[in-house]
Amino acid sequence: MKCPICENQLEEIDVAPCYDCGHAEGELKELKENYHEYHVFKVFGQEIVLCDFCDADFGSYYPDYFGLPGEYPQDYPMELLHKLEKPEIEKDLYCSECKHRKDFLEFLENARKANRT
Asked: Is 3 contained in some domain?
């Protein structure tokens, strides 16, 4: 399968539940140590799973990264849906070029499409 952003070939890896940082090797250790809580949010009309660090840091993404005008405030409309009660290591695909897992890349692709209109 190819990356939806750059079309690089994706590789299967173990990931923590967070779409944003779950691909990082250290996150698997932190998951095993119950270091983070994970929540499902709705933002830009779609769901995303984020750890407690990444949900606090989500506003650091510049608006144009998500297909929004540059002057858009970086206080993105995130609706908390629920907490993941039993987070586990999962398999996902990873893009070594974009440095993200497939779940995040699909979220990003859909956000950019939705925000263009």
From this structure: no
